[in-house]
Structure formats: structure tokens, C-alpha cells
Amino acid sequence: MGDKPISVQRINRIVDSKYKNLFLYLAFLVAFLAVITNGFISSRFGNAVIDLGSTTIPASSISGCIQAVSVMACIFMVLIDYRAGVRLAIFTFLFSIFGITRNMIANNTLSSIPGAVNCLIYILVSIIIGKQLKMADRFALTDSSTGLPNRYGFERELETRLRGSERGYVAYLHIGGFHDLNANLGRKYGNSILMEVSERIAGVVGDHGEVFKIEGAEFALILSEGCKYESLLSQVIDAIEEPIVVDKNGIKVNCFVTATAGVADFFDRRITTDEVMLCTDVAMNYAVNSRDEDCKISTYNDALRAEVAKTNEMEKMITDAIKNDNFYLQYQPQYILDGKRLRGFEALVRMRLNDGSTVSPTIFIPVAERSDLILEIDRYVRKRVMKEFKDICTAKGEGFVVSVNVSAKEISNPAFADEVLEAMEETGFPPECFEIEITEYSFVQSLDNTRQNIKELRDHGIKIAVDDFGTGYTSLSQLLNLPVTLLKIDKSLIDNLEDSEINRDFVKTVIYMGHLMNCEVISEGVEKESQLRLLNQFDCDFIQGFVWSRPLDYEVAVDLCK
Ligand code: C2E
Ligand code: MG
Ligand code: MG
User: Fold this and answer.
1) What is the average per-residue pLDDT within 325-337?
2) Sorting pLDDT into bands at 50, 70 and 90, what band is 32?
3) Ligand 1 residue neighbourhood (C-beta within 6 Å)
4) 354 and 502 part of one domain
5) Candidate of 405, 468, 535, 543 to mutate for ligand 1, largest count of ligand atoms within 8 Å of Cβ
6) For tag attachment on the chain, is the N or C end more exposed, with fewer CB atoms within 10 Å?
7) Same-domain check for residues 477 and 338
8) Three-state SS for 256?
């Protein structure tokens, strides 16, 4: 939760507790009793010296001590509750002035005047301190860029509502793309974008709830029980995703951010603040990591929690496997269809567990892709391939290819091409024998960076394949602008080749268009001779599939090259 400012940390423990009023009235009782006791001592002893047997003590000293207790109690009241505390402190002060004046008249002396002035000064000081602390608290509870209450303010408000047995919803809103804008345009413009976003959120939420800014690009909402949160959140998301116009040196720039939301309710009276926040976090992370464009709002439920727990466990397994060097590669041969000559291999990563079993990449790659773990895995695969196949590729030359899969996250990273080229220089691997497989999904991510990387890699002779082609994201025309060298037709299209005329026509067209674009075409997941025959008719260049070979261990793959 981070360090809370001292005033929030110490005083709020009482302020936020349900015994706040009890503390307030106890302090008032102490102050009031002290004033009465003081009045009694002054009227009974005046300026006399009290004989305590072995020693004597002036009555005014005892009076001073009791007055200090009363002042301390007044300060405490002001700190606990500024408004009520100030009123009770003034009441206590007026009551003590009344006692002091009465004594002065009765004893016909002005000796109590310094005590009264002291009392007044103490109370004024406590009011000033209270005011300062209140301001410091407000400052500590407010987000400086938007003026909205911040995470501490949010936690405090949620705690108050849970204590009051209120029911409702908490929603977290993640603003996607903000960090890039902030980095590109600068902090000043970043802040004005956040300000605009916060105004749009508050505008839509209105009386349905409260808005908080809890992290760099994250907002929280506390929504009332009766509100239709799904439709409200879709309106909020629509409002946020409208273009934001920023005035940069007189030029109007249209900025775009995205939004995803996670929601959890606090209907259960036993639920704690931490639990509500955790559930909302789980729901939001699910929405943020979902590749499903339609999943912009995710509501917490137990199934979601179980799924997240499974993902976390898998992430830990991957981290352990990286630490313990428990990855290895298999190589699946690719053949030139005409004559079944070896074209090369696709490197496929495997993860070994401590008990000796292996996990399929279809299970761990999607998990690794949600975190940065995929970058380490892919880096490992590239280095290993370059090391294991450098000599074979150098001997076989241009026509022989080893391909590696690269995640969308990597290909859209501006430093990616340089990193590959550096590894290539270090190992001495011939670039013309290296192929990078990217999925169609890469073109949805950051097209500019992807295009730049592809271009740089192609300039150095590295081949670029589009994996799983035909599964949805790209069109052929989109690829026309990219120097792609190979289209890999997805297994799902090959599976139905014999039964579906539409599939046959589609595959035929892809192969034809691919050739027009100067690309070669490979069909993957070919399992039957009948599929081979059809692909031969359609003029497909290469095939990869169980019909001719499954993925092989390194030693077997090397034997195949001889
Ligand atoms: P992919 O790149 O499309 O790889 C082809 C997958 O299809 C491989 O599964 C391969 O074993 C399988 N396959 C090939 N021919 C046939 C066939 O005839 N029948 C059937 N049923 N399957 C066939 P694998 O090895 O399980 O890999 C699955 C996916 O995991 C890969 O799909 C790729 O997306 C990902 N992957 C594998 N290795 C890596 C890696 O090093 N990095 C990254 N980022 N992803 C990887
Ligand atoms: Mg592949
Ligand atoms: Mg594939």
C-alpha cells in the first residue's frame, strides 16, 4: 500500500475506527473534568501551599498540570474531528473562563489571568494545528494531476462504506496507450490527457458514484447498489475512447486511448476492503489481458479467480523453467512439395517440468505472452537455433532455412531487429538461412514498429513468414505493403480441404495471390496424402505436417540433413 503520510497513518487509525465518537467524547470528558477539578482547587486553595506531609506544593502548580491535561484533551478532540472538536474545545474554554472569572471575583484577585490567557493560546494553537493537518490530509488524499481523490482517498472511502454496511460496486478502469502518449508527447500533455479523461469519466458517472485516480493510468469508481453498472461502464469506455484533442505548439493533435474495466461488488457484509480490491484487480487484469476485443468489461466471479490462479501457477512454472534451463527445442521438417526434398525446419520450444514430463507450447506460450516471459523464451530459442544450426546452414547455403516463432510483443518492440542482428553477428549464423515467423496478430499491435523491424531484417537477408495465415486478422492487401517472403496457411484450413469447397477455393486463391505478391506458400498441419495431392494441384510450394514428419529431437533432425 506504500507509505502513508504521518497524519494519515497515525490519526486516521482513530479517525477511521468505528470508535471515533467514543474517543471524541472521552477526550471531552477528560477536558471537562479537568476544568471542574481546576475550579475546585482554585476556589478551595487559591494561592495557598498544599501540605502533603513530607513535602509542600503550591496549589497553582497542581492547577497548571491539570490545565495542561485539559488543553491536551482539547487538541486531541480537534485532531479527531475538526468541526466537532473545535466546538467542544471552545465550549470547554468558555466554561473554564467562567470558572476562572468567578474565582477571581470571589477571591478578589487577578492572579488567574495568565492561566486564562495560556488556555486561550493553547486552544488557538490546537485549532491551527488541526487546520494544517486537515490540509495536509487533503493534499495526501488528492491526485495532483487530476484533482481527484487518490488511492488513499479511495481506500478510506471504501472502508467507510463497508463499515457502514453499504452495498455497491467497485470498478477499476485501465487506460491503455496512455504511457506511450505520455512518453511521446511529454508529461505536460500527458497530464492534460489524464485531466480530460477524468472529466469524461466524472461526466458520465455523475450521481451514480464517485471517481478516484488510483495509479498512473488507472481510475477507480465506487458505484451505488442500484446502478446498472454494465451500461454505465460501456458509456464511460465510449466517452474515454473518443479522440482527445491536444494543442501542441498551435497544432491540434488527435490522441487516442483505450479503456478496459474490471468490476466486483461488495454485497457481502463480511467482505474486507482488501478483498474487494483484490477481486476488482483480478477482474480488471482479466479484461486487460484478454485478446477478445469485445471483452472490455469483466465482472469478478469465482471461476475468474480460479483461472487467474492457474495462470499465476503456470507463470511460476515458466519462471522456474527459465531459471533451471528446462526448455529444449524440437525441429519439425518442412518439405518442398514437389519431390519431397527438405526445405529446412521450424524450431518448436518445449518446457520440461521437474518430474520429467513436458508441457505443450499451446499451454505455456499464451501465458508467457501475457507477461514479458515470452521475450526470454524467444530469445533463448533464437540463440539455441543459431548455435545448433550454424554449421549445417553455412554448409547448405541459401536454399536451406530454419525458422523460429516470434511473439507479437517482440516484433512490435523497436529494438527487436537490432537484437536479432546482433545475435546473428555474434554467432556468425548466415542471415539468408534464418526465417522469422510472425502471426497475423502482430499487425494488429503496433504496425509502425512491426513494419520497421520487418524492413530492417529483410534488408539483411532474413526471411519473414506469416504464421497461421487465414485465421482472421490480416487481409492479403494489408500484406502487400510488407516485404513478407512466406505465407503459412493455417492447419484449420487444411483440415477441411477435402470436404469444403469454400476452403479449397480459399486455399487456391491464397496460393495464387501469394505468388503474385512474390511470396512462397507453405501449408502446415498436413496429415493426409489426399491433402498433399490437392495442395500439389494448387501449386503450393512447401508443406509441414505429420504426413511426412512430426517435430524431431535435435539429433534426429541433424541426421535428416545428411
Ligand atoms: P505454430 O507455429 O503454428 O506451430 C505449428 C504447430 O502445429 C506445432 O505445434 C506443430 O507440432 C503442430 N503441427 C505441425 N504439423 C501438424 C500436423 O500435421 N498435425 C497436428 N495435429 N499438428 C501439427 P506445437 O509445437 O505444439 O506448437 C504450437 C504453437 O506454439 C506454435 O504454433 C507456436 O504458435 C507456438 N510456439 C511453439 N514454439 C514457439 C516459440 O519458440 N516461440 C513462440 N513465440 N511460440 C512458439
Ligand atoms: Mg509457427
Ligand atoms: Mg502455425
Assistant:
1) 97
2) confident
3) 332, 348-349, 360-362, 365, 374, 378, 381, 405, 407, 437, 467-468, 524-527, 544-546, 551
4) yes
5) 405
6) C
7) yes
8) coil
Q: Are residues 386 and 501 in the same domain?
A: yes
Which bound ligand lies closest to the C-alpha atom of 465?
A: 2
pLDDT over 90 at 311, yes or no: no
> How many separate domains does the chain show?
3
135 and 164, same domain (yes or no) = no
Residue 347 CA to ligand 1 center (angstroms) comes to: 9
Ligand 1 atom 27: the closest Cα is on which residue? 361
CA–CA dist 102, 90 (Å, integer): 18
Same domain assignment for residues 354 and 409: yes
Is the residue at 330 inside a domain? yes
* Nearest protein Cα to ligand 1, atom 23: 525
pLDDT value of residue 111 = 66
Beta strands in 90-132 (DSSP E): none
Q: Say yes or no: 126 and 187 in one domain.
A: no
**Average pLDDT estimate for 251-276:** 90
Q: Report the separation in Å between the CA atom of 394 and the middle of ligand 1, taken as the mean of its atom positions.
A: 26
Asked if the structure places residue 310 within a domain, the reply is: no
Last residue of a domain, one of 140, 170, 195: 140
Neighbours of ion ligand 3 (CB under 5 A): 467-468
In DSSP notation, 2-28 reads -PPPHHHHHHHHHHTSTTHHHHHHHHH
From the CB of residue 333, how many other CB atoms can be counted at a distance below 10 Å?
A: 22
Last residue of a domain, one of 300, 328, 363: 300
Owning domain of residue 134: 6-140
Binned at pLDDT 50, 70 and 90, residue 5 comes out as very low
Closest ligand to the CA of 551: 1
Name the more confident of 14 and 58: 58
Mean pLDDT over 373-378 rounds to: 94
pLDDT at 505: 93
Q: Is 88 found in the same domain as 65? A: yes
Q: Stretch 405-421: mean pLDDT, rounded?
A: 92
Indicate whether 3 pLDDT > 60.
no
Q: What is the CATH number of the domain that holds 214?
A: 3.30.70.270
Backbone angles phi, psi at 350, to 5 degrees: -130, 145
Say how many Å lie between the CA of residue 526 and the centre of ligand 2.
14
**Half-sphere exposure of residue 396: CA atoms within 13 angstroms, side-chain side:** 21
Q: Do 165 and 118 have their domain in common?
A: no
Kindly report the CA angle at 76 between 71 and 81, in degrees rounded to 5? 130
Residue 248, CA distances (Å) to 96, 180, 183, 272 in order: 63, 16, 14, 45
In a domain, 312, yes or no: no
Nearest ligand by distance to the CA of 468: 3
Would you say residue 1 lies in a domain?
Answer: no
What's the CATH code of the domain at 488? 3.20.20.450
- Quickly state the pLDDT bin for 9 (edges 50, 70, 90): very low
Residue 136, pLDDT score: 66
Task: Report DSSP letters for 148-177, one per residue.
Answer: SB-HHHHHHHHHHHHHTT--EEEEEEEEET
